[in-house]
Amino acid sequence: MQPTDRSLLVLALGWAAAGAAAQGAELKPSFLISSPSYTEFAFLDARNAAAERDCGGRNLSPALAWSGEPADTKSFAVVYFDPDGNNGQGEAHWIGYNIPTGVHGIPEGGMGASVANMTVGTNDHGNAVYYGACPPYGKFHHYVYGVYALDLPVGELQPGLNRDELLRRIKGHTRAYQSIVFVYQRTPPPAGTQQRSPQP
Question: CA separation (Å) from 68 to 26, 30, 37, 105, 178?
Fold first, then answer.
């Protein structure tokens, strides 16, 4: 190999390395979501399970925190969704939107029917309350808490939206999205106890 050829090869490899480094930097997300209560894919405690019927919990939502949204973000939306619910068709357990950019988290138990600094939407039970984890006995369900950074001003989205309506309204207005996933499985009751599984 001639010196000139070697120099060109070194230069080409340098460009390739720089390009890979730049690509890696672009792929690293700046918008992040975490929970002070749990790590990603952790098992939820019973306190985060639903309190209804025999779900066995206290219906407390886990704490969430997010940061690093794009500069043109004007509001946030949060959707708590069980993709395994409703026989794999998914189930929205809680929805909040019109959240100001000054808000970067929700404390444990902070998701409910009426929350300051946001509009609470309609879950798949047809109401605005928070519905904790309650999978059928013997099944693991994944619970996705997703945060959308939107270019829509606070108040742009009307009250009462369900998940499908919200997703239609924010299409083309989502500047960034991140989610954190937890897992829950109900402990079967003692033998002889009547079992009720409110959700498939």
Answer: 14, 5, 20, 12, 11
How far is CA 27 from each of CA 24, 71, 76, 84, rounded to the nearest angstrom? Answer: 5, 18, 22, 28
Asked if residue 80 lies in contact with residue 93, where contact means CB atoms within 8 angstroms, the answer is: yes
Q: Which two tokens stand for residue 120?
A: 């609470």
What average pLDDT score do residues 186-199 get? 61
CA 187 to chain centre: 25
Which tokens is 29 given?
A: 């997300």
**Contact indicator for 47, 57 with CB cutoff of 8 Å:** yes
Identify the structural domains of the chain with CATH numbers, from first to last: 31-184 (3.90.280.10)
Q: What is the pLDDT of residues 19-37, one digit of tens each?
A: 544 454 455 579 999 999 8
